Automatic annotation (TrEMBL):
The keyword Zinc does not apply. One of its GO terms (molecular function) is iron ion binding. Residues 2-43, 174-208 form the Rubredoxin-like domain. Signal peptide: none annotated. This is Rubredoxin. Its cofactor is Fe(3+). It comes from the Bacteria. InterPro entries: Rubredoxin-like_dom, Rubredoxin_dom, Rubredoxin_Fe_BS, RUBY_RBDX. Keywords: Electron transport, Iron, Metal-binding, Transport.
C-alpha cells in the first residue's frame, strides 16, 4: 500500500519501508515538507472527473476588496512578476502591497481559533469555488494558483494546529523559512533543497527573524 503526502507528493511505500503506515507514530512527519501524518492519504488511480460548478453570490463576487485583501493581491502579483523576470513591475506591486498593509486596521478579536476557522473556510469553501470557476472558464493559470494555494493553506493549517498543541516548544532551537515564490512555510534548521510546492531552489526561501524578547 502506498500513501501520498497531499502537500509535496512524497510517497510512503509500505513495500519499501520497515513499518506499515498505520504503525507510524502520530507525531511522524513527511521527510520532505514536514507535513503531519494526517496530511497523507492512500494512493488513488487518477480519474478524469469534471469539477462541480460552484457559483459565488453576486454580492460576494463583485464586492470591494479590503486593504488587507488588496495587500495580499498585490503581493501575489509581485511574486508573479518576479517569476516572469519583470523586476520593475514586481517592485511596484511590492510597494502597493506595503502601502495597503500599512492601511490595514488591526483585528480586535484576532486569535488562533479565529485564524484556524478562516483557514478551514478557505479549504472547504474558498478554493473549491475558485477552482470550479477556473475549470468552467478554462483558466489554467488560476487552476495552478488553486493547486499551490491549497497546499500552502493546508500546511499553514497543520502548523497552526501543532502550535496550539505544542506552544513555543514547536519553534525552540529551530528556524522558520518561507518560500518567497509560493509562500510555503517550513520549520527546520535549514530550508528544503527544493520547495515542496513550487519546486524553486532553497535560496528562494527567506528566514523569518524572531521578535526581540524583553
Amino acid at each position: 500500500m502506498k500513501y501520498v503526502c497531499s502537500i509535496c507528493g512524497y510517497v510512503y511505500d509500505e513495500a519499501k519501508e520497515s513499518a506499515p503506515f498505520s504503525a507510524l507514530a502520530e507525531s511522524w512527519k513527511c521527510p520532505l515538507c514536514g507535513a503531519p501524518k494526517s496530511m497523507f492519504a492512500p494512493e488513488k488511480k487518477e480519474e478524469s472527473v469534471k469539477a462541480p460548478v460552484v457559483s459565488l453570490p453576486f454580492d460576494e463576487d463583485m464586492r470591494k476588496l479590503s486593504a488587507g485583501e488588496l495587500s495580499a493581491l498585490c503581493s501575489n502579483l509581485a511574486r508573479g512578476c518576479e517569476k516572469q523576470y519583470k523586476p520593475e513591475q514586481s517592485q511596484l506591486f511590492r510597494q502597493l502591497a506595503d502601502y495597503f498593509a500599512a492601511a490595514t486596521p488591526a483585528v480586535d478579536n484576532a486569535d488562533m481559533a479565529l485564524l484556524a476557522e478562516k483557514l478551514q473556510s478557505d479549504l472547504s469553501e474558498g478554493y473549491p469555488a475558485l477552482r470550479s470557476a477556473a475549470v468552467e472558464n478554462g483558466d489554467r493559470g488560476t487552476q495552478r494558483i488553486c493547486v499551490w494555494g491549497e497546499k500552502v493553506t493546508n500546511i499553514l493549517h497543520s502548523l497552526l494546529a501543532r502550535y496550539r498543541s505544542e506552544g513555543d516548544a514547536l519553534l525552540e532551537d529551530t528556524e522558520v523559512w518561507v518560500c518567497s515564490v509560493c509562500g510555503f512555510v517550513y520549520v527546520g534548521d535549514v530550508p528544503p533543497e527544493l520547495c515542496p510546492v513550487c519546486k524553486v531552489p532553497d535560496w528562494k526561501f527567506e528566514k523569518i527573524e524572531r521578535r526581540a524578547t524583553a
